[in-house]
């Protein structure tokens, strides 16, 4: 009976220790999703990560797009993005951070050459190198779309089914 109690106690402590991390990851996924325009319906997060430094930080969030969004992007191409210029979590005019989440007009890839000449425009390595390489390779060719906001880029890669949000503050 004592052994059973130890196991239960150990599991309870493990859950208590892991809970703050899990809660933070859920919050992180939600926060980055709020930076995407509502026109981009996400199915689930593929990878979300960030790095902090003394004077700022950076982050990269990769989301799998819904089938409905991918179908609309493939059908309407660049015109799909005409109204996708404001983040879903920052649409109100009184939002003091709203200007950070207002996107420039969308463009077709390839992304500008300097973004991919020296590896990647991702300032931090918050996602796996394999995923980053896959995204950078796809951004070099036609068939995807990108936009920028102050301190951020947003890339939609229909061939991969991803929306990629990268921020550097």
Description:
This protein has 169 residues and is α+β, with helices and mostly antiparallel strands. The protein has 4 helices and 6 strands. The protein has one domain. 34% of the residues lie in helices and 25% in strands. It has a 6-stranded antiparallel beta sheet with strand order 1-2-6-5-4-3, sandwiched between helices. The longest helix has 32 residues, at 2-33.
> pLDDT under 50 segments (min length 5)?
none
Helix content: 25-40%
> What structural category do the secondary elements indicate?
alpha+beta
Order of helices and strands: HEEHEHHEEE
Average pLDDT confidence is 82
Cα shape:
elongated
Radius of gyration, whole Å: 19 Å
User: Sheet bearing the most strands, described?
Assistant: 6 strands, antiparallel
Helix count, DSSP H or I runs of 4 or more residues? 4
Q: Which strand order does the major sheet show? A: 1-2-6-5-4-3
Distance between the termini: 54 Å
What portion of the residues fall into strands of 2 or more residues? 15-25%
Tags for this model:
single chain; 25% strand; 169 residues; 4 helices; 6-stranded antiparallel sheet; alpha+beta
Task: Please provide a brief summary of the model.
With 169 residues, this protein is an alpha+beta fold.
């Amino acid at each position: 009976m004592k052994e059973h109690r130890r196991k239960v106690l150990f599991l309870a402590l493990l859950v208590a220790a892991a809970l703050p991390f899990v809660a933070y990851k859920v919050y992180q996924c939600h926060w980055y999703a709020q930076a995407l325009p509502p026109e981009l319906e996400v199915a689930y997060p593929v990878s979300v990560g960030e790095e902090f430094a003394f004077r700022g930080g950076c982050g990269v969030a990769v989301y799998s797009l819904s089938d409905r969004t991918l179908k609309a992007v493939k059908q309407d191409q660049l015109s799909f993005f005409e109204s996708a210029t404001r983040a879903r979590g920052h649409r109100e005019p009184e939002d003091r951070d709203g200007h950070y989440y207002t996107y420039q007009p969308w463009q077709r890839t390839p992304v500008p050459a300097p973004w991919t000449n020296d590896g990647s425009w991702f300032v931090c390595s918050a996602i796996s190198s394999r995923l980053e390489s896959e995204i950078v390779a796809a951004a070099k060719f036609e068939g995807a779309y990108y936009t920028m906001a102050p301190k951020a880029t947003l890339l939609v890669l229909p061939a991969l089914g991803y929306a990629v949000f990268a921020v550097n503050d």
